[in-house]
Recover the amino acids of this structure.
């Protein structure tokens, strides 16, 4: 969670590296996902660190802009403080994340993903907790109060409704099960480690 300006700068840089962008800021035309992620981080910073007068009106504007921009990009419904640094949204298209879900550092997530509470349960706080360096393939559906360990790769269109606590594996299928001992290492960029490695 962003709790200071230093955190905000760190998250922005980790996201840039995770998205494999070489420039410091998005291009005027294009880079729509990167622009959305930067806006998401800005909303997080102002919500967590400047959620008081005289910033209230500006924060309302940022929240409206983020929501509108997310819809424009195909249906990004991502709450603030859901993702750790090093987020990489791979493609345009809907991505829906329960506000109570928590996803760690260096997550690469594709289009068509739902991270939701238990279907029919009525308790929206029972949402997934996902570790660091997790790759989430296109069309993945995740439900309920489940835990996903670090360094896991989740294959396309998997339906994940139970916990996987063994790190560094691949899971897939409907319902999801372990399919190999090969995790996410080759599928994500460990952006947070890169940024931390630059620090004196």
């Amino acid at each position: 969670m962003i709790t200071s300006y230093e955190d905000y700068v760190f998250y922005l840089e980790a996201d840039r590296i995770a998205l494999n962008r070489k420039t410091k800021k998005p291009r005027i035309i294009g880079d729509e996902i990167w622009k959305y992620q930067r806006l998401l981080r800005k909303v997080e910073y102002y919500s967590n660190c400047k959620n008081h007068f005289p910033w209230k009106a500006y924060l309302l504007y940022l929240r409206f802009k983020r929501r509108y921009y997310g819809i424009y990009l195909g249906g990004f419904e991502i709450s603030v403080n859901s993702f750790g640094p090093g987020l990489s949204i791979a493609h345009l298209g809907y991505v829906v994340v329960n506000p109570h879900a928590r996803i760690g550092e260096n997550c690469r997530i594709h289009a068509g993903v739902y991270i939701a509470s238990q279907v029919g349960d009525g308790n929206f706080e029972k949402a997934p907790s996902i570790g660091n360096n997790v790759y989430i393939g296109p069309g993945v559906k995740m439900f309920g109060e489940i835990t996903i360990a670090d360094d896991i790769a989740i294959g396309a269109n998997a339906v994940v409704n139970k916990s996987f606590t063994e790190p560094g594996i691949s899971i897939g299928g409907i319902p999801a099960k372990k399919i190999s001992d090969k995790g996410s290492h080759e599928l994500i960029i460990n952006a947070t480690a890169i940024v931390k490695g630059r620090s004196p």
